[in-house]
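Researcher: For the record, we're logging two predictions in this thread. I'll number them. Prediction 1 follows.
Model: Prediction 1, sequence and structure:
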Amino acid sequence: MKKNMGWNTNILIASAMLACTTQAQEIVDINPFWVAYDSIHPKGTINDLYEDLVLPSSVTTDRKYPVTWKSGDTLFLGHDGHINGRFVGENKVVDLTATITDPLKNQTKEKLFKVSIHGFEPYSNYLFAYFPANNNENIYYALSNDGYNFTAMNNGKRVVAADTVSIKKGLRDPHVLRAPDGWFYMVNTDMKSAEGWASNRGMVLMKSRDLIHWKHATVHFPEKYKGKNFANVTRVWAPETIWDENYVNKDGSKGRPLVYYSLLTNDGTIPYDQVFFNYANEDFTDLEGDPIHFFDRGKSTIDMDIVYNPIDKLYHGFYKNEGDGGICKVVSNDLTTENGTKAPKWRNPSKPLQQTNEAVEGAGVFKLINQNSWVLMYDCYVNGHYQFTSSNDLENFKFVQNTKTSGAFTPRHGTILPLTAAETAALMKAFPTPNFEAKVIDLPDSIGVCDGKKVVGPCSATKIIPYVKVGDANWIETTDLKVAKGATVQLGPHPWDGITWSWEGPDGFKSTERENTLRNMDGTKSGYYTVTYTNETGCKSIVKIKIVVDDPDHPYVEPPPVSIDRGVRESRKDQRLKRNPVYFDLLGNRLKGKPRNGMFVVR
């Protein structure tokens, strides 16, 4: 009986405590002002900003609380969230302060955001480095303007001959890294598949300043690791390189190429393909130390490709589930730990990411130029094509296109990287590519200097060439066209590979296609057809094409000119800089306020 009474007493006490806890939770008063404060956030990817921020002017909880914004550096970011300028090739961090006000209580509070403005990428084109077939294990190049459609270089001939650089006289799986030290680093599987899939014993390391002239060295595991289990490799597959900016060198400097690859031995110590890594030595002619285990999924794991996403501040490692099929991904906060002596903690294995039921391998991930858009490509090796998918978060991928591999362009496992216009021109001179017209994306105009470095405008506009065609006639370049009633007119402006177009015109005409056909024209369709093109850098270009139809029933009347005062005619940039002028001295040093003499203003 006493036990029962004690048990009941405990229940009563627990119930009372729960009731008190529940009651306490019910009477907690959360101040609506602080709820509003916590909810303030710019709309945009502030860790790596590509496009203008949207800044809320108020936040509402129990009522509306006004919010004002102030940029710490209007040369780069306006108070309205508009990107005014960028560094070239590197990000700029700007303080952005939100101030929320409670007018009834005369209360204000500031909230600070660190906005990292993405640097303008000075690239125009894409290079695909690959090997073409199991019976042709040499290095080939192809060029692209959009990252999806490629033209083989060098008239379809190899650019690096395997028999001049590799032990096995075969080069597979080329991976090319553009490093911050000014070098391009290429690593390749040293293998000839005709000798069997267990014939590979090492890799080839290469470096170049221009992607044309390469220095090379081989790493032969049986010789390098004689007396150790790593000498018993049956394959050293698909090496890749990533720059570890946090690695501390012996002289105190930071940064070193890290090479990772999959290993398999025949002595049972590495019973299935697992990913290992080493750091390269200073001149990229050898690997330092013994291989360190990097990652595996508990089964054969190959073709790993690692990229860093500054938005979520994570390393994303893509890999092939060898034997099971499919491409999956893991993430990590770090590339390595303890200054490169240990692997990181990879986590969150994904579901298969390929957008096909076909067999796939050779995953490659790269970012489109000046866009927050990643591309995951892979070799659909059974059916003779590459598949391209895209994502803005490296988590959710959508199908873009299948690129057929035929003729001179038959890529197998390779790498895509961006090129400057000058690099493309030099490559085309060294390796003739007559069927390719390279797009050139110019640097935006300079708007000032900060910390001794040039600051450019937020984007670089593309010239629209207004091509039109009447009936079966040839295409002509014009913005002023007269046609007969009943005519068919085609509008097909260039650049031909542009993907973001917007049209508006007479009689309610709207379109998002680049090329449009206007049939059975009459006077109701006379007027200005305005096309807006948004290019890779986010810049908009506008052209108006005037079409007048000879139709007596609906004669064309030119609209009266719109009266616009000088202030409205000025560009948004000019207006913005008039409101917030930026002052520099003659040495390019930015001043805090308006100078008294001997200075100038950058607009």
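Researcher: Logged. Prediction 2.
Model: Prediction 2, sequence and structure:
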Amino acid sequence: MAAPIPPAPPPSRAGLAALLAVRPVPRRWPVAIRAAVCMGLPALAGWLAGDIAAGLTATIGGFTALYGSGRPYRYRAGLLAAVAVAITLAVLMGLWTAGVPWLAVVALTALAAGATLLCNAVPVGQPGAYFVVLAAATGVAMHAGHPDPWRVGMLVLAGGAVAWLVHLAGAVVSPRGPERSAVAAAGAAVASLAEAGPDEFDDARHRAAAALHESWNVLVAEQPARASVALDRLRTETRALHLRFADILNGPRRPERAAPETGAVELPFGRPGAGALLREALRPGSLSVLTAARAGLAALIAGSAAAGLGLEHAYWATTAAVLVLHQGFDWPRTAQRSLERLTGTWAGLLLAGGLLLARPAGLWLVLAIVALQYTIEWFVPRNYALAVVFITPVALLIGSGGRPVDDVGALLVARGIDTVIGCAVALVVFLATARLGASARLPEALAGTLDAAVAVLGHLATGAVTTTAARTARRDLQHRALTLPDVYTMAPDETLWPGVVAVQRLAYRMLATCWEHERTGGRPALTAADAGRVGDALRETAAAVRDGRPATAAPDLPPLFAGDVLAVQRSLGA
């Protein structure tokens, strides 16, 4: 009997309950301390040098510390260097275009769209494009003081260099710490899968597959060509976890005897390369293109509206709009993020007003920034609205340049109004573009996953599952299976949810069969004729999904995949 299809995930909900919820997050304090140190050190250096304004300028580069967590140290070094340079160039762009208001708006628009597309396409990770756009907006704000652009650029880059050094300091103590953490997470996920009951099995399987895939990203995709003994040991451990994962999925279908492995083994690939991911993101109708277009359009409208109203800090409206849209959330989560930003900002203005009126200077200003940044990073994954309460005052303290603010009330009101404009524009832009390609996105993702499964079938039929072509096909199938729930979340259609679950089950069964054959060797898992019949059935199903019609049920399928293929076809209307 086929396993029951779990209910579709409930739609995301925006509201007071979500606004007040505090999610449990283990061991956030190391990340919070690192971010606080990276922001505090440049400010401290500026105070010690007698130029606190220069130190606060350098803290902009300290935002580099918010990227790269969990990545291997060698890979992290390159990523953080690129982020530090991007932030520096963004600040300079803001400085150079601020003298011509319309040019500044156009430049921020182009940057918002380009950075959003790039950060969503390639594995930059959180916080994504936002801080690059914020850096450019900060450069626009600095123009009023007529600073030397090259001096500002060097200060920002120096702050990025400090963040780079602090971020990589852990390599001295535990050079393979990120890799071990990824393998441990994969082991815990596979153990949970082994203990999962029928109702939780599909979710547990997806979490285990995602954790294993992430471990291969860390152990293969983000590593140099030459491996160390320690890395080889971790790869061997992860491969054993993947074989255990295959055993759990294959269950009684697993052969009673497994041939011992001999000689070197071919490692699976991690995620697709940056070029492949960028090409995938640039496909017409892709979520990445839509998200980038939304962020750019909202930046243009919000910046133009704020500038047209004569608001002194129009760039605040631009950054608020980009913040709400740049992650590509669905409507409920976009509305929730807007609500969090609004409520958090207005509550944070009270705290900011108290701090600005207290006029902390010197070491007290440095300590205030450190304490606020630590609190921000502690709250960000738990409750974003509470984090924004502390983001608002730290931004205004840094923006003050260490100088007293003449009219604190006017500054706070301006920040609040600009935030309202940016959030409102973001919501309007989302609603105006909500239907662009949404109806076709999930069917195309399902069909593309079936196409990837057909590619893997050919390698199963020959028994050559470890060649470069086979490992590429297995990686692509894994990638598509893992992203299916995310596509569903962005374009939910409850009539297709059974198809999402069934296609995922087929994909994981096929990948588990590859792992089983890789271990046992011997005859291919399928004959060429069997693979041909399964392939024909999957191609017909993919075409039916794209055409919006029921698939034709396939008879006489081989027992290995018959149940999974028929489940896919039944779930999609055969």
